[in-house]
Amino acid sequence: MIFTGSHILSVEQFERADIERIFTVADAMAPYALRRRVTRVLEGAILGNMFFEPSTRTRISFGCAFNLLGGEVRETTGFESSAIAKGESLYDTARVLSGFSDVICMRHPQEGSVAEFAEASRVPVLNGGDGANEHPSQALLDLYTIRKELGSKNRGIDGLRIALIGDLKYGRTVHSLCKLLCHFSQVHVTLVSPTELAMPESIVEEMRAAGHTVIVTEDLTQSISSVDIAYSTRIQEERFASKEEADMYRGRFRLNQSIYTQYCEPNTVIMHPLPRDSRADANELDNDLNQNPNLAIFRQADNGVLVRMALFALVLDVVDQVDKYARDVNWYNSLRTL
Ligand code: CP
Predict the structure, then answer these.
(1) What is the pLDDT of residues 201-235, one digit of tens each?
(2) Residue of 7, 59, 135, 276 marked active site
(3) Class of residue 210 by CB neighbours under 10 A (exposed 0-12, middle 13-18, buried 19+)
């Protein structure tokens, strides 16, 4: 695809070569994400960061990624602080805000809303999550994390064995990740969810058409016994008609250190898009896994900055100029690693 000036709305836009291009650029962003070097390549550029649903990682890492490239960030969070609360349409909001920004990131509770906004926008729009539909940058950072974690064991994504666990119906991160996996070969996917929260059949069919083995089950312990990646997800309470309905499923599939030790292969990597629900009645990933070196959830979140820097650099066409506008940092750096 041509990245320059493009909206990033769905992972369906990408071919395998595009994914690899994003990952190569993300790798090159490490000195900046680690704050060993600073670049001013986007000096003067403005990101409009519009989040109409709660977010910690996506909103802040999109913002940090833009700042790390030298740009400025202006935020709108929640409908109540936007004129949408006064009845303004997405069309008018997009026409106005795209006059103030060079690129816009948006999260919205309705499926398709970010694409609708993008149609009216005069600048590129990046989907930060639209309802239960898609979360493209999360899927890219998830796949980037899988590549990195397996790469340290001399393995690639082709032939991957992965279990996706939890709310696969409303979990937009797993929808996007499954679609990205269709670009790779001989992936073994085990889908673990309550029947009512199963992965949409269209996505299962897409994976089978790509030649992948797909197993659908409610058996957690068996499903995690021979996988490279155990990817857990939260029950997406905000998508249910009531809290009581979500409560019926919360806590159904819990992974803790004892289960990990008993059932997983020694180097199984544990992932989660976060936030994990750490309330006692949920606790899908127990805190007793925090010292497990195969718990990749915080490395995964760190990788989000690299991938989002890569998306900005590609869409705003500055990949080849990042180093030209760079210098070493002035301050003490406590040798962070990613
Ligand atoms: N993974 C993710 O989308 O996290 P936030 O909801 O905190 O952005």
Answers:
(1) 999 999 999 999 999 999 999 999 999 999 999 99
(2) 135
(3) middle
